[in-house]
Design a protein that fits this description.
Elements (H helix, E strand, L loop, with lengths): L11 H20 L15 E4 L10 E4 L2 H16 L7 H8 E9 L2 E13 L5 E14 L4 E11 L5
């Protein structure tokens, strides 16, 4: 589905992480189906930080101490998003305005830099502006890459 969009097609580790954090996440989010991404997480190691869209590190909070906490918020946001209709399919819009062009890997650890930067146009003429970034922490236990946590909802003022 998104092989032609994956900037890491020639690098199996980075390609896998990109598919997990972009294509699979967006399809699952649009479908409001957590089961599509549940195995992408390392539940026992998971921890998530909410940056409150602030450049001040003191504003960052441990909002998701467990995967269950994050799953609840992910499902809440997916349900909220589904209340609206959009000018183009949501997955297509997200693939257009979100970038994941930097994935730093060192041994079994990786940090993926996902940047949300752009507008999602609704059919009622309103728009939702996304302007934040998330750093995903991933680990490879030998069988595949999994998300161990993230620092998300961080201020982003650049371009995707």
């Amino acid at each position: 589905m998104t092989t032609e969009l994956n900037p890491f097609a020639d690098d199996s580790d980075r390609a896998f992480i990109w598919e997990m954090l972009m294509a699979r996440d967006f399809v699952a989010f649009a479908a409001r189906d957590w089961s599509m991404v549940a195995t992408d997480f390392d539940e026992g190691r998971f921890f998530g930080i909410h940056g409150n869209n602030s450049a001040n590190f003191d504003d960052w909070k441990p909002a998701f101490p467990t995967l269950a906490d994050y799953r609840e918020e992910w499902l809440r946001q997916a349900a909220e998003t589904a209340r609206f209709t959009y000018e183009e399919p949501l997955v297509d819009t997200l693939l257009r305005i979100v970038s994941l062009n930097q994935i730093d890997i060192r041994g079994p650890a990786a940090i993926a830099h996902k940047k949300f930067c752009g507008d999602i146009m609704r059919t009622d003429g309103s728009r939702e502006t996304l302007a934040f970034q998330t750093l995903y922490f991933c680990a490879n236990a030998g069988d595949r890459w999994r998300i161990t946590g993230f620092a998300g909802y961080l201020r982003y003022t650049g371009k995707a």
